[in-house]
Each structure stands twice: as C-alpha cells, then as structure tokens.
Design brief:
heterodimer, A: mainly alpha, MetI-like fold, 15 helices, flat, B: mainly alpha, disordered N terminus
Chain lengths: 313, 317
C-alpha cells in the first residue's frame, strides 16, 4: 500500500518539482539565499571583532596564550573584567572621560543653541558669514593647532592682571580644546532644526508679550529637544573617543581619559613577558558597551543628525 | 534715533528696519559666546601656529631663547625626508581607505536599501563600529592581527582548499602583519576600512532613500535592465551624497592619527603626517619646527578642499 503510493509520488515528482519549488514557500526562501548570505557576511564583518574581543575577555590566560586558537572558550571566566575594573587607572579614566565629555556636551549645547537661535530665527547682516565660518570650522584639522594649544596651556599673560590659566595636564585643557570640533557641528545641526520650526508659535508668544529670551527658553528649546538629544549624543561620542589632544595635553596617569588609559594599559596581572590582552579586551568591552546601547536605542536620531550634518554640510 | 534723519519713504519699511536693528543687536549678542570660543580655540591658535613656525621655539623654553628665524623651518622642512615619507604614506593610506570604503559602502548601501525584515536592526548594527573609539578599534585589531595568538593568522593558516590537485593555504605561515613594513599599510587600512565602511554605507543609504521609486518603475516599464538603471538613475541621482561622503572621508583620512599611533607609535617609515607632527611637538618639544609641519599639513588639506570644490563647480556647469 504505502510502497505503491511512494512509487507513484516518485514518478510524478520530476515533472512538477521545479514549478513547485518556485511556488512553494521553501522555494521563495531559496531564491533569496544569495541576498541573505550577503546580509550575513556584512553583519559578521561588522560584528566579528566585537565577538573576538568578548571571547578574549572571558578566555582564561592559559587558553588565551596558547595555540591552536580556541574560538569558543571552554572555561569562561570573569577574571579579566575583574582585573580591568579593579584597576584604579581604568576607573579614574572612566570618571575623567565622563567629566570631560559631559562638560563639553553641556557647554556646546548651551552655547550652540543660543547661536542656533540667532542663526535660525533672526535676519541680520553677517549671518551667512557666521554660518560659513562655522561650516569651515567643522573641517578644521585639529593637528594644525596642536603646538599652539600646547604652548597656550602652559599658561601665558594676556593683558594687565589677566593671565591665561595653566591648563596643561588638567581635564579643562581637553574641555577647552574639544569645543573646536563639537561647537561648530552643534551650531550647524541645531540651526537646521531651528529653521525647520514654523513661525506661528513664536509670533503667538510675542503677541502675548514674551521677550525673545522667553520665546527661546519656553517655546523653541522644548521644540528642538530631539535635536538637542541627537547633537548632544554626537558631541559626547566624539569627545569620549578623542585621542590626539588627550595624549598630548595629559601627563599624569590619574588624569588620563579612556582612550589614553587603554593604550597605556598594563593591568595588574600583566607580566613583563606577556601583554595583558585579556584585560585590555575586557576594558574595551566595558568602554564600548554604553556606546553600543546608546547607538542602538537612538540610532534613528543619530542617523538623522549625521545626515543633516553631512548632506547639508 | 539718528536713523530718523534719513527719510523713511514708507512707514512699514521704517518699522521693519527698527525691528531689524533690534534683531541684529540681539543676534550678535546671542552669537557672542560661540564667536568668543571659536576665536580663542581656533583662530587665535591658528595665528599663533603660523607665528611659531617662523621661530625656533622649544617647549622647554629657557634652554634656547625663542627668536625669529624667518623661513629656516620651512627650508628644513623642504629637505626633511621623514616628513616626505609621512606625506607619501598618508596619501597612500587616504587613497586605499577612501577607495575601499566607497566601493564596499556603496555595495552595502544598495543591499540594505532593498526592503527586508530586520533592516532597522541591520542599520543599527552598521552604526556600532562607527560609535566606538578609534583607539579601541585599533586595540581590537592589533590583538586580532597578533603574530602568535591572533585570529587572522589562525584562520588564514587553517583555511585551505585543493584546486587541480594543488593544495592551497590562505596563508602558508603566521605573519607579523603590524611589524612587517610590507604589510603595515594594509593592517592600518584594514582597521580604518572596518570602522568607517558601515558609516559611509549609511551616508550613501540616506542618499539612496530620497531617490523616488517611480523612476525605477518607469525605467523597467521601458525595458531598462537593472544594470542600466544603476548607471542611469542611481549613480547620477546619488552624486551629491557621493561627493559629500568622499570629501569628508578624504579630509578625515588625511589627518589620521589614532590608528597609526596605536599600531606603530613613532616608528620610522610608519608615521602619518599627524603622527610625525605630534612627535615633533610633544615628544621632542620642537614647537617652532612642529608649527611649520602643522602649517604644511593645513596647506595640504586645504589643497584637497580647493580641488574638490573646483571639481564640483566645474562638473556642475
């Protein structure tokens, strides 16, 4: 009985197979295989280094510095994370970076939104000059003023009793110098947000007797809140990631920011013969995790901000 | 008040100028903090750099008193073969990375532009390499490229295939990618390409998404092949996004510092322009000479800006 049914089915199958394949859900999936394969390759390319950092962070040293290389650690351990987080250098660096990047972000947003208000809502002579000045600042090469800032930060006399404070080897040297790349960008993007707002609300507020500053504070600023989040995050990320100025203007390890600390990391378990790669990878995971979470949560806004900055720029 | 002297022909216009004057005053007042910051953080230091480049200033002043040396630094710079090597290496790095990032980024953008389940997630995944510090990316890759325990060497020597009876390994033996001068450029470029390609793809993707779909529909009704559609519709309409992306990437690549510094430190023959300059100023303390190098880098980068701008102007006519 069953054998007869099987033979007839086998006889029928060759004729209808190709048609059935294309129409069946399975067939539709199969024709998409190359496409999904490409997607997979892109995803693996983007994510593999993170996987590798993670696997190196949880692989014990005895396996980490051994060949053949193990792709999945058989005895995962938190030792490297413990090692990284118990390092006072690294903990200080996390704090320093938070202070520096946080201050830079707040200052840029405060100064930048005032400027964006003027540039986006007012009409006056010299406005386009300022806009172009800010635009040209966004492509300003930081290396071009490294030496000048370096000597400025060792303190100098301005006029009368006023001296420029000695900022060398303090976080304020970074807060000050990072404004060169966060502020122009912030102004540029926030101006485009300000411009996009309709004029009615503003006019209604003026009719009700509000001053321009009240309009700015109570009407416009809440409306561009999404723009503030986007530009704030971008400013924070670029300040958090900066290395050239940080490695040039800081000297004492207790003032290091995260990138400088990671480069100069030796860890407590490191010995003279082997660089503590496991601990460094644990540190990189700790540093990148908040950034990854922030980008995943705010990806739409980041993209909007970046394309506003780049396409209009 | 004094403006009353000038006859106002139509009253409303007079009112507008009064409003305008108020706006101008308030506008500049609001811009004051930003302008002060820019003046202090960018314009003054730039002027100072130019001035310093004509002096023999040392960071540890007092050893040699700073004095005006005219064009001496520039003269020395002209004969500085180490800086010349740094320029060449940086230009090579720029050409390689911008080229790869553009081609790979365009392919990725085209793939991700077609609608599929999980596209949002894919875009998020692509942002991740861009968001992490370059120094961290460099450290990750430095470990992956390790000559003994690195995954690149392990995969390379493990993967093998047989073709016409010949046995091939992707790599015949482990290689010191970073230490070997012949692969040093490839290894730094790999990091930059990995970190930046997804970002380039996202910028191009933003450009792709504003191309109206009916253009493609009309083209396929007229019998245009996918390839023709790409050359005739996608590329021309994507042009503004492509140009902006290329300009920003080129300027970024020319001032590269982080990856080179992490991989090679100040190793001779493996310095980018910025690494050489930073070494001259901070490590060696030659502020005057370093300032001349800075001015040279500034001019080289400006040259690229001018080239791009003229290219855009000329090709738009």
């Amino acid at each position: 009985m069953s054998t007869a049914a099987q033979t007839t089915a086998a006889a029928v199958r060759p004729i209808s197979r190709s048609v059935r394949l294309r129409r069946s859900p399975l067939g539709r999936v199969l024709t998409k295989v190359p496409f999904w394969l490409l997607i997979l390759v892109i995803a693996v390319y983007a994510l593999f280094p993170f996987y590798w950092a993670l696997r190196s962070a949880i692989t014990p040293d005895s396996q980490l510095f051994n060949t053949p290389v193990q792709y999945f650690p058989s005895h995962p351990t938190w030792a490297h994370f413990h090692d990284a987080l118990s390092s006072s250098l690294f903990r200080r660096a996390l704090l320093n970076s938070t202070i520096v990047a946080g201050s830079v972000t707040l200052l840029s947003l405060a100064i930048g939104s005032l400027s964006a208000y003027a540039l986006g809502r007012f009409r006056f002579r010299g406005k386009s000059f300022v806009l172009y000045l800010m635009l040209s600042m966004t492509i300003f090469p930081q290396i071009a003023i490294l030496g000048a800032l370096y000597t400025m930060f060792s303190g100098f006399h301005i006029v009368g009793p006023i001296d420029f404070p000695k900022l060398y080897d303090t976080p304020w040297a970074l807060v000050f110098s990072y404004m060169i790349f966060t502020l122009p960008f912030t102004i540029w993007v926030l101006t485009s947000f300000m411009r996009a707002l309709p004029g009615d609300l503003e006019e209604a507020a003026y009719v009700d007797g509000a001053t321009p500053l009240q309009v700015f504070w109570k009407v416009l600023l809440p409306l561009i809140a999404p723009g503030l989040v986007t530009t704030g995050l971008l400013a924070f990320i670029s300040a958090w990631n900066e290395y050239l100025y940080a490695v040039s203007f800081l000297q004492s390890p207790s003032h290091y920011t995260v990138p400088v600390a990671i480069v100069s990391f030796t860890g407590s378990s490191g010995n003279a013969f082997q660089f503590p790669w496991g601990t460094v990878m644990a540190a990189t995971i700790v540093v990148t995790l908040p950034l990854i979470v922030a980008t995943l949560v705010l990806q739409r806004r980041i993209l909007a901000g970046l394309t506003a900055g780049a396409v209009k720029g | 008040m004094s403006s009353v002297a000038t006859p106002a022909p139509i009253p409303p216009r007079g009112r507008r100028t009064k409003l305008q004057r108020r706006q101008t005053r308030l506008g500049w007042l609001l811009l004051l903090p930003a302008l002060a910051v820019v003046a202090f953080v960018a314009i003054y230091p730039l002027g100072k750099t130019v001035y310093q480049s004509f002096t023999n200033q040392e960071f540890l002043a007092g050893l040699t008193p700073t004095k005006w040396v005219g064009l001496h630094n520039y003269h020395a710079l002209f004969h500085d073969t180490i800086f010349r090597d740094a320029i060449v290496l940086t230009l090579k790095f720029t050409a390689i990375t911008v080229g790869f990032e553009f081609v790979l980024g365009l392919i990725i953008a085209l793939v991700v532009n077609s609608s599929f389940k999980g596209r949002g997630l894919m875009r998020a995944v692509m942002l991740v390499p861009w968001a992490i510090p370059t120094v961290v990316a460099a450290k990750m890759w430095q470990w992956m490229l390790d000559d003994t325990y690195g995954v690149v060497n392990d995969l390379g020597t493990r993967i093998h295939f047989t073709l016409f009876g010949w046995h091939f390994h992707l790599l015949s033996h482990s290689h010191a990618w970073i230490a070997d001068p012949s692969t040093q450029l490839a290894s730094v470029s790999a990091v930059d390409i990995w970190k930046t390609t997804p970002f380039v793809a996202l910028l191009l993707l933003a450009g792709l998404q504003v191309i109206p779909n009916d253009l493609y529909e009309a083209a396929s009704v007229d019998g245009a092949s996918k390839l023709q559609q790409f050359w005739r519709i996608t590329l021309p309409l994507l042009r503004p996004a492509i140009l902006v992306t290329l300009i920003f990437r080129t300027l970024d690549a020319l001032r590269v510092f982080d990856v080179f510094s992490v991989f090679f430190g100040n190793r001779l023959g493996a310095q980018s322009m910025a690494v050489y300059d930073q070494g001259a100023i901070v490590q060696d303390g030659h502020v005057g000479y370093g300032a001349a190098v800075s001015v040279a880098i500034f001019l080289i980068i400006s040259l690229f800006v001018v080239m791009y701008v003229t290219f855009v102007r000329v090709s738009e006519q």
